[in-house]
Design goal:
The chain is of the alpha+beta class. The protein has helices at about 135-150, 190-205, 230-235, 260-270, 285-295, 300-310, 360-370, 375-385, 440-450, 470; strands at about 25-30, 35-45, 50-55, 60-65, 70, 75-80, 85-90, 95-100, 105-115, 155-160, 165-170, 185, 330-335, 340, 355, 395-400, 405-410, 415-420, 425-435, 475-480, 485-490, 495-500, 505, 510, 515-520, 525-530, 535-540, 540-545. The radius of gyration is 24 Å and the shape is globular.
Length: about 550
């Protein structure tokens, strides 16, 4: 399911008319919700044109094939079908300014010459799990105490070693407007897909279903159904769209809908590409897999969950939407203070992202999956990602330097979750955050860094509240001579907000005198009121805006 909307400012660069040299290695960093992912593109030229490969140093992946490399009139286009990624940028001098798009999300990416291919190698040392985990647990607990004390996060985390829980903590709930002891579960979003995929593989094991059965056998009315297989829906190569994204209202599923309306939307979205010619994250595929599961078994999704997970694993805090659980933590956004967040009507995303549970239960499930107690080892092998592909059939790769974890992440409009397992160290790590200021990825990086005894600097937090009267001097319409992007600064609910032209608004958090930030947008804004200017710092770039 889609995570929280990624809000950022699109940087646009003017270009020259003369072609320049493009061959060599180019490096840059994607900044998504405060987390940085380095990328390197290695471009060569031969008689037939340009070829290239990509490296993702932090994920320990090199020489990812780039299917299409085009460089014309200073415009560079790179297409990587294995990850469903496209980069387009304009070369000016020694910098390429452009956009990297993947799974419906577009992020600014500026590339600069890399002195040495793979120059991030120093960051990729082999990690070793400390023998004394008590010290690691103490560091993690201190980190979470810091976040809780500074009103930065609320949620729950669990760590298992060799199938047993070694750490669990619920934190930050007392800082939220609505805190109750009756709450014990979190919405886990797309982590649900691992459960759905496991139940599909159970049917395959029973020979009630086949990986190569066509969608047309169950839903002939869906576009391209005669070409789409169960396998392709499981690993996001079906070409189906994403029904979670509305046509006129992008968040249409926060309101009550029904199967008839959803199927109509799926048919209207049609096919994005021919099956197996590309890869794009598709909630639609898992919506249809859930319906197929129910058709074949003649049981509801809730009944299938009970049979496969709840009863055999003796789970007592594990729910699907039809059970209407009343013990789920409410989600919040931070806008100077915690504000309740409107989330999905989870009956619209059954089997896609509707399960509510807790991190301990997630660790129980992922351990049983990897122990071969949910699906067979043959099925588990089929579910796992292959080669450089991070997406498998219900299981994804979550790399952390030299370590590879496997499981799934999940995000709703209000809660972020993760359930992963590392076979090498027999460690499983799960969390759910229903209130998040530093970014879920940053939370995960912090916990794993401290677990593996890596150096880690706590995020800087400032809870000083600036009176609205003191914010007034920053408000206004701003423009820049460097890019054709307007920037509006305004006050709402006594907090400062920024909004780029034709883009969503986002709150700004106070850092220090005249300085504000947005971790989700990866942006910092420094105001100079006496000059009627602001400086936007984002993705390593500094742009000056003048107040109109």
């Amino acid at each position: 399911m889609k995570t929280k909307l990624s809000i950022f400012l699109m940087l646009i660069c003017f270009t020259s008319f003369f072609s320049q040299e493009i061959t060599g290695s180019w490096k840059g960093e994607l900044n998504f919700q405060g987390s940085k992912l380095p990328l390197i593109f290695n471009i060569k030229k031969d008689k037939e044109g340009y070829t290239s490969t990509a490296d993702s140093p932090l994920q320990q992946v090199k020489d990812i094939p780039v299917d299409k490399t085009v460089f014309e009139k200073n415009k560079l286009t790179l297409e990587i079908s294995s990850i469903g990624g496209i980069y387009t940028g304009m070369l000016e001098g020694k910098k390429i300014t452009g956009t990297f798009s993947q799974n419906g999300i577009s992020l600014p990416l500026i590339l600069e010459p890399s002195i040495e291919k793979g120059n991030y190698a120093a960051k990729n040392e082999t990690l070793q799990l400390p023998q004394n985990l008590n010290e690691s647990i103490k560091r993690i607990d201190d980190f979470i105490s810091y976040l809780e004390k500074n009103n930065a996060e609320a949620g729950e985390v669990s760590l298992f070693k060799n199938g047993k829980e070694i750490y669990k903590r619920n934190f930050g709930q007392q800082n939220l407007p609505s805190s109750s002891e009756k709450h014990s579960a979190f919405q886990i979003g797309s982590v649900t897909k691992t459960m759905t995929a496991s139940m599909i593989f159970k049917l395959i094991e029973k020979k009630q279903l086949n990986l190569y059965d066509k969608l047309s056998k169950f839903f002939p009315e869906v576009p391209n159904a005669e070409k789409i297989t169960i396998s392709q829906m499981l690993n996001h190569t079906s070409g189906l769209g994403d029904y979670v994204q509305g046509k006129d209202d992008i968040m249409w599923l926060i309101n009550k809908s029904d199967d008839k309306k959803i199927m109509a939307h799926i048919k209207e979205q049609g096919s994005v590409f021919e099956p197996s010619t590309d890869k794009r994250y598709s909630n639609t595929g898992y919506y249809l897999l859930t319906k197929i599961l129910e058709k074949v078994t003649k049981k509801t999704y809730a009944e299938n969950l009970k049979e496969t997970f709840t009863t055999p694993l003796q789970l007592n805090n594990f729910y699907t939407a039809s059970q209407n659980p009343a013990n789920v933590y409410l989600p919040y956004d931070f806008i100077g203070k915690w504000i309740s967040k409107k989330d999905f009507d989870f009956n619209n995303v059954v089997g896609v992202g509707d399960i509510a549970t807790d991190p301990t239960t997630l660790n129980i499930i992922i351990n049983h999956i990897f122990e071969g107690e949910i699906v067979s080892q043959a099925s588990l092998s089929e579910m796992m990602p292959k080669g450089n592909d991070n997406f498998g059939k219900g299981i994804i790769t979550v790399p952390f330097f030299s370590k590879k974890y496997y499981g799934h992440s999940g995000g709703t409009y209000g809660t972020n979750s993760l359930m992963v397992y590392n076979p090498e160290d027999k460690i499983s790590f799960s969390y759910s955050l229903n209130a998040d200021r530093i970014g879920a990825n940053n939370f995960a990086i912090g916990v794993l860094s401290l677990l593996y005894n890596k150096e880690y600097e706590y995020p800087k937090l400032n809870n000083e509240k600036i009176p609205a009267s003191d914010l007034q001097k920053y408000t206004g319409e701003y423009s820049s001579k460097e890019i054709p992007l307007g920037l509006k600064i305004f006050i709402e609910d006594d907090s400062l907000f920024a909004q780029g032209t034709n883009q969503p608004e986002f709150p700004l958090e106070y850092v220090e005198k005249d300085q504000f930030k947005s971790d989700n947008a990866g942006a910092k804004i420094i105001f100079t009121p006496e000059k009627k200017q602001l400086t936007l710092i984002q993705n390593g770039n500094s742009l000056i805006f003048d107040k109109k």
